[in-house]
Fold this sequence. Notes:
Metallo-beta-lactamase, Chain A, eight-stranded mixed sheet, five-stranded mixed sheet, 9 helices, 26% helix
Amino acid sequence: MASQIPLQPVALAPERQLAEHLHEIAADLAYRRTTLVNVIFHGLPAAGDRGWVLIDAGIPGAAKAIKDAAASRFGETSRPAAIIITHGHFDHVGALVELADHWDAPVYTHLTEKPYLDGSLRYPPPNAGAGGGLMPLLSPLFPREPVDVGARLKILPADGSVPHMPGWTWIHVPGHAPGQIALWHEFGRTLIAADAVVTTGQESVYEVMVQEPEMHGPPRYFTPDWHSAAASVATLAALQPELLITGHGRAMAGSSMREALMQLAQNFWEVAVPDNIARRNA
Length: 282
């Protein structure tokens, strides 16, 4: 495991505990952890039907947990205006088809990620030799088949705007997945980074369980393009966010988070990339 430079502990974002496992980190932003991964809710609690947006759709079997969290925040009969998918890995689209059908909601993603959401292309095999813990060894068992949301699938606007999320823009951050996107709110300096960076060591079952707050690169076992991944982390670090929400781990905030993100960008090949790949690219 590459770790020549210590991973920087970072400060947790101030948050308010709502329903079970639902954390509010801003008036219009909350997230819920579904075993391995976070799903994010954008919108004020009083937004009403079609007044909020779901970002990502968790692991297979997470539909009830996500619907319960949405009901507790927005009301039992409230439906999202849209579902935004940052990328199509199984832990981000596991409940997508069920939720999109249940809520009759459009699904938006990047053009490059479209084949993984329309049933036409599966992801490449994981890197089971990525090292760092049990998760890479288990990764060949993880689903790689695409989902298919049919006519509900929409492509994000080319101008960078995010449907039903005024003031937000999407940023293409490939590497972990070819069409992965991050979401950025300039005024609030809030970054939803997907898996371009994560705030827990996703390779270790222990770290996944305890959620120790650290800055990490994307999950190693499911990241095929490390040059693009490095460029994506540099892009996000340059934004200097005040609040960071990632696909895995707890939300972080403040100067220590920014410093850790910059250290990750500057030392990416030493601390983020599996040893066998780093040696080949040295």
